[in-house]
Amino acid sequence: MSLGISFSAGAAARRRPMYTKVRSAAASTALADYALLEEDGVVKIPPHLSLEEGATLPCAAVTVWHAIFEHAKLKAGDTVLLQGTGGVSIFGLQFARTTGIRAIITSSSDEKLVRAKALGAAFGINYRTTPDWEKAAMEFTGGTGVDHVVEVGGAATLTRSFGAICAGGKVTLIGGLSGGATELNPALIFARRANVQGISVGSTQMFEAMNRAVAANAIKPVIDKVFSFADAQAAYRHMAAGAHFGKIVIKVA
After folding, report:
1. Can you tell me the distance from the alpha carbon of 179 to that of 62, in angstroms, rounded to the nearest whole number?
2. Segment holding 247, helix H or strand E
3. From residue 121, how far is each of 12, 79, 90, 212 by CA, in Å?
4. Per-block average pLDDT, block size 10, for the chain (253 residues)?
5. Are 19 and 44 in contact (CB under 8 A)?
6. Residue 147 and residue 141: Cα distance in Å, rounded?
7. Who's near 78: CB < 8 A, 6+ residues apart?
8. Using alpha carbons only, how large is the chain's radius of gyration in Å?
9. pTM of the model as a whole
10. Which end of the chain, N or C, is more open, meaning fewer C-beta atoms within 10 Å of its C-beta?
């Protein structure tokens, strides 16, 4: 969920002049007309984006940027597996496409997989019809395995994520949509010599590096639907239904 917020220069202008548009995802500012933000936590929106588009960048985009480029340090020709078609995975797909990284994406919807392939996914797996999706990923990579999994599923997907990676592959833990994994067999890590790291969003420096890439490649966030402030409850219901593709935005003003 993202919020579009208008901001007047104030203290942030001392750090970088002419801050006229920003976005915030701080929990304490959710659904607020006005918000008091930390100066060091404010960055400028890429100039080609609207407020609504800019509002999608915190959390989802920064988190997957952190996962792919800071933790996994992927490069052109590497392969990443992205789970689902929510904001994190769709941003990951867009970043992969612009840097020559092959992206495999999973979904329970064939229609969403078609849309993901149109955005540049090299391979799509329907995890409803192919519950052993890690085997499909392994087969797609010729038995080698993927270099990186962006793990958002939690209890229902973590074991399979280890089954999808190559020797020395990386798993970035960023979510638990199916519930937190309460048990982890260390043998899964040893068998793949895996590198596992949990992350929480990212730094201001990562955000600014990501924004430079967004601007240079004219990346446009994929917005499923924009809701008005008055329809905030409908936005949350839409998110809970899990039918969205990309980001959901609540337009504050």
Report:
1. 22
2. strand 247-251
3. 38, 11, 10, 23
4. 44 39 46 76 90 92 97 98 96 98 97 97 98 98 98 86 96 70 76 92 94 97 95 93 93 80
5. yes
6. 10
7. 72, 101, 102, 147, 148
8. 18
9. 0.86
10. C
